[in-house]
Amino acid sequence: MGDLEKAARKAQEFRQREREILDAALALFLEQGEDRVTVEMIADRVGIGKGTIYKHFETKNEIYLLLMIRYEEDLAELFRQISGSEDKETIAREYFRFRISDPRRYQLFDRLENKVIKDQAVPELVEKLHAIRSDNLASLVRTMEARMDDGTLENVPAPYHIAAAWALAHGAVALMESPYYQKFIDDKADFLDFLVSIGIRMGNKGQRGK
Amino acid sequence: MGDLEKAARKAQEFRQREREILDAALALFLEQGEDRVTVEMIADRVGIGKGTIYKHFETKNEIYLLLMIRYEEDLAELFRQISGSEDKETIAREYFRFRISDPRRYQLFDRLENKVIKDQAVPELVEKLHAIRSDNLASLVRTMEARMDDGTLENVPAPYHIAAAWALAHGAVALMESPYYQKFIDDKADFLDFLVSIGIRMGNKGQRGK
Amino acid sequence: MGDLEKAARKAQEFRQREREILDAALALFLEQGEDRVTVEMIADRVGIGKGTIYKHFETKNEIYLLLMIRYEEDLAELFRQISGSEDKETIAREYFRFRISDPRRYQLFDRLENKVIKDQAVPELVEKLHAIRSDNLASLVRTMEARMDDGTLENVPAPYHIAAAWALAHGAVALMESPYYQKFIDDKADFLDFLVSIGIRMGNKGQRGK
Amino acid sequence: MGDLEKAARKAQEFRQREREILDAALALFLEQGEDRVTVEMIADRVGIGKGTIYKHFETKNEIYLLLMIRYEEDLAELFRQISGSEDKETIAREYFRFRISDPRRYQLFDRLENKVIKDQAVPELVEKLHAIRSDNLASLVRTMEARMDDGTLENVPAPYHIAAAWALAHGAVALMESPYYQKFIDDKADFLDFLVSIGIRMGNKGQRGK
DNA sequence: TATGAATGAGGCTTCATTCAT
DNA sequence: AATGAATGAAGCCTCATTCAT
Q1: Which residues of A touch B166 (CB under 8 A)?
Q2: Where in this chain does the record put each HTH tetR-type domain (chains A, B, C, D) (predicted)?
Q3: Which of B171, C48, C95, D49 is the most exposed place for a label (fewest CB within 10 A)?
């Protein structure tokens, strides 16, 4: 095996380990909450030493951000896959569904974002995160505008529709995760159905001021 | 002045101090975030010693919970005031408005609830909180059912309507507070208007599956 | 005992503890070198908990600086005591002697100053330190100028004389402390005598350009 | 090319690399201070791997010592070059000048020597360093004795003169490097002139007790 | 020989809570 | 009841050194 090959494999393994660390971190954060998870716990779960984590990431905050970026990139990937769809409603629905699909993960990132921004940590990565997100939102804006041209959607600035959907999704997530409100809803699936139907038609033309 | 009177006044002052502590704590939590606020900072703001705080509350978690209960009681008070209203829409609207009116406070309590439940802290108080909330929700349920009887609202279980409104409000709050999404919306007031209109008619009859 | 008295005594004890911590820190720094001394070691020597140290000082760097300031204040005290002396040579001699008298302490502070400045730590205290020192130097400058008026000293800017004396003292200290150079000098006392005589007459008139 | 030649070249390259490492280390130590420089930084500057450094040197302390030895050997080289000089004052002057010429380097080594000796690190190298230094001092002693025979210098043990000069040089270096004292002296060049003149005539006959 | 990923001891600092006065 | 000094567990991060490839 040539030296180049070897180097490539090493780099590969390094990336792999990075992924392992992030996976372990995410799993622990979800299980126990970020505040209860120490860097050492992450290392233990991966089966490596504490110091090794710091070969891959500068700070714990960086881990937070990288996870958030990964999430946002998954979303971007989703958009890429469905952007060809003729049905303009699909994108909005998929967006909605993606957000709701893993509520704990979503909520974790919401908390993390607030924390990380309050700490003014790793500003470059925050910027990167926001750049990706802006791209994603631009996709949505285009879709929304198409639907407004169709005459389907009420003609307010596109961000309004997106933000409203975002808010409903965000709230739905919090609802499904809230230990208290969970018991308030008996048939989760049916309710979600109801909620999605609201989300989709929300802002449809001719409904305002009714 | 008799001993009884004296004792009564003392008890009075003790209550007063308790309120001061909670007020100071809330103000600080809102200004800086719970994690950045130490018990000592709260004591300093009230102008008392740190130890004194522990004469009133067993732990910091108890402070969290008492604040949350106060919030929920404020909501109960609101319901009491408007429950006589003939216009059944009013209650829903006020509920919505109350939640949105002080988003940071609301978000704070949302965070605190998750934290406190994860810690399984002061379970008696958690129970008390949930009891009050259940009462509040029962009020809403009654209203919703009345509107469904009217034929105004789509006939799904009442909690669905409430939960949907809750979710939208929750999301709206997060949206308005998010440093990122804030810049995404140009005219905040106009957007909120849009959002409230959605919130009110959301779930109105005849819209589903449209 | 009145409350005021009690409070005063408490404050007194607090100060006393502060002094104990600084004394212990200084002793340890001298014995083992600053880098080998941990905050915990200092606490152990005083017989208190690690956290207590941080009730008195914000950081380890602050301890460094407070010790340095104490040293500089001792010097100021010395100047106050001898400033009345008619013999203008006395001040210079005492200054010299003070610096040489405890070489390890002096060297410690020299090291600390470099470290603390490189770290840009606790700038307010650095400023305070320098302010005191500037006062002390001003004392010396006045003395030197008097001697130049006498015609005793060569008429160059006063700081030159001071700086030269400072340099010789600084070097003498390093010499006496150097494990290597120590064995190079047999009769320490006699040599110091020689050095002091140089220090005193150094810069006397009529010697330059000989 | 024969195997022997190859081996020789390899050895040559190995030596060369060693020199590069030491050069890089010295440069970094001077720029940032020993404590802020990690082995990895040295490796990076040379453009090699961190592990390679440990093929050349057992510990970081060894690097320190090797640098100090190099410095002392430079001094020995200087003595060799000027030892033939008829003017006996020259050696003393050159010695003085050499020390003052690169104050940061000098101070670095002073710090390192204290550190390394406190750590009792690599005693063989410490011994070697001191052996070279002893040779250098012996050179100086011979010169001084010649000048005392001349009647130029006061007749005290030769090491006295050397030590005094060493001390003054050492102090001058510290002075010029001290961020604080620097601003105390306006005209650096003029002051150094003054200092050197003192250094040269320091201990000249007939001045003591004047 | 060269590499650089991995290690883990060790340092500094924070803060909720306790307790003697 | 009020105080605030004292505590120490716990967390984050650094870096010289090792070792498998």
Answers
A1: 171, 175, 181
A2: 21-65
A3: D49
